[in-house]
Amino acid sequence: MFSTSDTIVAIATPPGRGGIGVVRVSGGDAGRVAAALLELDVPLQSRHATFARVNGDQVVATYFPAPHSYTGEHVVEISAHGSPVVLGQIVQDAMIAGARLAEPGEFTLRAFLNGRIDLIQAEAVADLIDAVTPAQARAAFDQLEGTLTGRIADIDRDLFDLTALMEASLDFPDEGYHFMEAGEAAGALAAIEHKVTTLLCEFKRGRLIREGARVAIAGKPNVGKSSLFNALVGASRAIVTAAPGTTRDLVTETADIEGLRLEFIDTAGVRDAGDEVEREGVMRARRAWTTADLVLVVLDSSQPLDEHDFDLLSETDCMRRLVVANKHDLTPAWTAIDFAEGPAEAGHHLLSVSSKTGEGLDALRSRLRTSLDGTSGGAAARDTAAVTNVRHAALLERARQALARARESVDAPGGPVPEEFVLTDLNDARIALEEVTGKRTSEDLLRHIFSRFCIGK
Ligand SMILES: Nc1nc2c(ncn2[C@@H]2O[C@H](COP(=O)(O)OP(=O)(O)OP(=O)(O)O)[C@@H](O)[C@H]2O)c(=O)[nH]1
Ligand SMILES: [Mg+2]
Questions:
Q1: Model pLDDT, residue 176
Q2: What is the CA radius of gyration of the chain?
Q3: What are the Cα distances from residue 198, in Å, to 141, 350, 396?
Q4: Among 176-190, 342-356, 403-417, which range has the highest average pLDDT?
Q5: Tens of pLDDT along 66-107?
Q6: Which of 379, 202, 216, 347 is nearest to 285 (CA)?
Q7: Ligand 2 centroid vs 331 CA: distance in angstroms?
Q8: With a 6 A CB cut-off, is 296 part of the ligand 1 pocket?
Q9: How far is residue 117's CA from residue 67's CA, in Å, rounded to a whole number?
Q10: Which of 355, 359, 361 has most ligand 1 atoms within 8 Å of CB, for mutation?
Q11: Looking at per-residue confidence, does 419 or 173 come out higher?
């Protein structure tokens, strides 16, 4: 198993130069290591920033004695000028004084091993650091605060009570449920199962918050795909010209759309003519549509619709899509009604926008979110989901299945199955929950989880 007996050191701030850089030392020997490398006028005082020098450079050191520190061990944090050379030297000096270079995530691993945080919270630390949108950060922060931990503890408590009642019945030799009616047990099981199911439903939304989605922009040449792409990502990323066939390759950029992290993919305009480069571009465009979570089909409202538009509409018909009528600032050549009567009847999806004036873009953004998120109302995507992690969801699903089996046993048409069998399922459910929080875990799992961390966290 992992060792927490030695003292570890690492630069805690991002690589590169900065105003300030922080070196963190943690372990039983942190105080001694710090004393060996810091030139101090006054000794380090608990939780006080103390001025010191290292190799002549000015630093500020803060001492957090165990157990009231991030790792639960003695921790010294040394803030120095944010130069990689200065910070590297401090780490070297700490190593000479007996500290070992920390592995990625090892400070957080120690916090977990020392019982400062559970596994959900440790994973949330990595999520928080990786968060790109405020919604992702909020979801991680919620988990760090213990929201999911609390809800799992609540489910586990219910399970514990039910298990205790059933186990007590085992002491009675004659068959039947002694401390509760079978119907009562079935009801209790259904209630617990419902709590788990609710968490699983939140996962689907949580995943979108966490991982975001890919949106490919499709359309004929010159309808304004690149212009719309630029408007949505808020930067002049893709080249826009009046000549059809401007975009050849895929251009991707990420943007925060109403709290969702969306990766937009601008693609080549679809047409038959063109050179080899353009043909390849069109092939890539088609591949991008099929792998995207949503396709934004762009039509030009200032030009009559032609068979190319209709072909594209039928080609994307079975994909999750939104149809956009661009260039709304110009005189329209057709209306939503013409469109609705056309071969593709997706009239209610049609949104009029102008990439040039920005008209209709807010409506498009909120339509993007509702299409992906399946919820309506601005607040929905802003609420964070308790479950955002695939590992947690898989275990919750395992718990749900075990609970469903238990409920079916109690509810069996031929009369309830003996408690022993039900108890096995209840135990399976509890094991799954304990694996979520890390009460039950393996070294392999911990290695896997902490390998995604950066060094110094
Ligand atoms: N008036 C007006 N012109 C627009 C609008 N959107 C794009 N355009 C113009 O339409 C032309 C084509 O725009 P692009 O964004 O390059 O079109 P595209 O669909 O990416 O074209 P390809 O890359 O060639 O397939 C440019 O001259 C744009 O300035 C709009 O909303 N209103
Ligand atoms: Mg383009």
A1: 63
A2: 29
A3: 20, 33, 10
A4: 403-417
A5: 999 999 999 999 999 999 999 999 999 999 999 999 999 999
A6: 216
A7: 22
A8: no
A9: 12
A10: 355
A11: 419
Q: How far is the CA of 303 from the centre of ligand 2 (A)?
A: 17
The residue whose C-alpha atom lies closest to atom 2 belonging to ligand 1 is 327
Counting from 1 in the atom list of ligand 1, the atom nearest the Cα of 227 is 15
Angle between helices 119-130 and 443-450 (to 10 degrees): 20
Which of the pair, 169 or 20, is modelled with greater confidence?
A: 20
With the most atoms of ligand 1 within 8 angstroms of its CB, the residue from 217, 240, 286 to mutate is 240
- Residue 227 CA, ligand 2 centroid: distance in Å: 7
Ligand 1 lined by 225 (C-beta under 6 Å): yes
The mean predicted confidence, pLDDT, of the chain is 89
Among 117-121, 129-133, 223-227, 271-275, where is mean pLDDT lowest?
271-275
- Ligand 1 within 6 A of CB of 360: no
The span from the first CA to the last CA of the chain, in angstroms, equals 20
Residue 370 · residue 294 · CB < 8 Å: no
Q: Which of 217, 220, 222 maximizes ligand 1 atoms within 8 Å of its Cβ, making it the mutation to test the pocket? A: 222
Supply the residue whose CA is at minimum distance from atom 13 of ligand 1: 224
- Would you state the structure tokens that stand for residue 77, as one six-digit string? 């944090």
Of 344, 325, 326, 327, nearest to 336 (Cα)? 325
Q: Is the distance from the beta carbon of residue 244 to the nearest atom of ligand 1 less than 6 Å?
A: yes
Residues linked to residue 326 through DSSP beta bridges, in sequence order: 300
Q: For the residues of 100-133, what is the DSSP string, one character each?
A: EEPPBTHHHHHHHHTTSS-HHHHHHHHHHHH--S
The C-alpha angle 123, 127, 129, rounded to 5 degrees, equals 120
Strands 260-266 and 213-219 turn out to be: parallel
**For the ranges 3-17, 145-159, 203-217, which has the lowest average pLDDT?**
203-217
What is the 332 CA–ligand 2 centroid distance (Å)? 21
Segment 19-65, tens digit of pLDDT: 999 999 999 999 999 999 999 988 999 999 999 999 889 999 999 99
